[in-house]
Amino acid sequence: MAGAYDDRDGKIWLDGKLVDWREANVHILTHALHYASSVFEGERCYSGKIFKGHEHSLRLIESARLLDMPSPHTAEEIDAAKEEVLRANNLTDAYVRAVMWRGSGPEMGVSAKGNPVRMAVAAWEWGSYYGDAKWQGAKLDVAKWKRPSPDTIPTAAKAAGLYMICTMSKHAAEAKGCSDALFMDWEGYVAEATGANIFFTKGNEIHTPLADRFLNGITRQTVIELLKDSGLTVHERRIKPEELADFDECWLTGTAAEITPVAQIGDWHFTIGETTRKIAERYESLVRE
C-alpha cells in the first residue's frame, strides 16, 4: 500500500460498519480536532494474529474512560472490528490502528458530553518503524520538552493530546539526523522516547524507568516478563541522566518500534550487545507463536 494515508484503496471500520478507505471522514467541527478528545491504540498483526489484541482493546476503553468518554463498544466488539478490517483488506502482517474520539454534535465548547463518542479501525502494511536503525542502532536526541507530571495530565491514557510534544521533539531530532528523542520527566529523570519505552543494561542486570508517570507500554510489560523468565534481574526505578554513561546496552520497546537497539543518546554511546540481540529474538519468536 502506498500514497497519502487519506488516498488509498481498502476498507476502514467506522462506527460499526466497513466503509471505503477514502470515505472514512469526519466533519471539520469534530470536537477531537479542536480539543484533543481522542485516544488510540497501535497494534501489530503477525501471521494473521494481532499480538495481545484484547489487551489493547481493554486499554483503549480505559484511555477513553480517563478522558471522560464512555466507550460505545465492548472490548470483544473492538476485537471483532479489528479482525473484520484485516479480513476485508486481506492482511496477515499489518499495523492496526484503533481510534476513539468525541465527534461533532450539539456542543462546540470545551464541554461536549452531548456529542457522540465515535470509533474507527484501520490497518495497513508497515515495516520497521525506525528503518535501518532496527539493525544498526538508533541515534536519539535529548528532547528540550519534559514529560509532565501525572497531576497535570492523565499519563495512563494513550491520548492523542499527549503526543503533541512527541511530534515536536521527533521533528527536532530528525533535523539533527537522529531517529528519535529521549524525554526526561518534569523532575529531570529519564522517562521515555517519543513513542517507545527504554531499557538499559549494566553488567547482567536490566534497568528501566519506573512507568508510573508515563504510559506503561504493553510491549514494555511483555519484555520485562521475557527478561525475568530468562533469569535476568530487572530494576524498575528512577534513572538520572548522568547514569547513562555507566550503562552498556540500550534498547527501545513499543508496538511499532518492537525491539530497537540504541547506539547513541546525545553524547552517550552504547554497544548493540548480546542481551539486546537475545531479547529481540525472544520477542520476535513470541509474537509469531
Please give a structural write-up.
The chain has 289 residues and is α+β, with helices and mostly antiparallel strands. The protein has 2 domains: 11-124, D-amino Acid Aminotransferase, Chain A, domain 1; 133-287, D-amino Acid Aminotransferase, Chain A, domain 2 (Alpha-Beta Barrel). The protein is built from 7 helices and 15 strands. It has helices spanning 31-35, 53-66, 75-88, 133-136, 164-175, 218-229, 274-287; strands at 11-14, 17-20, 38-46, 49-50, 94-102, 117-124, 138-147, 180-185, 190-193, 197-202, 205-209, 233-237, 249-254, 258-265, 268-269. Strands 7, 8, 9, 10, 11, 12, 13, 14 and 15 form a 9-stranded mixed sheet that branches. α5 links the parallel β7 (138-147) and β8 (180-185). α2 crosses α3 (75-88). It is globular. The mean pLDDT is 96.
Question: How is this structure best summarized?
Answer:
The chain is of the alpha+beta class and 289 residues long.
Number of strands: 15
Structural class call reads alpha+beta
CATH-defined topology of the largest domain: D-amino Acid Aminotransferase, Chain A, domain 2
CATH homologous superfamily (4th level) name of the largest domain: D-amino Acid Aminotransferase, subunit A, domain 2
- CATH architectural arrangement of the largest domain: Alpha-Beta Barrel
Biggest sheet, in brief? 9 strands, mixed
Q: How far do the termini sit from each other?
A: 26 Å
Oligomer: single chain
Name of the level-1 CATH class of the largest domain: Alpha Beta
* Outline: globular
Instruction: Give the averaged pLDDT, no decimals.
Output: 96
Given as residue ranges, the uncertain stretches (5+ residues, pLDDT < 50) are: none
Give the strand content: 25-35%
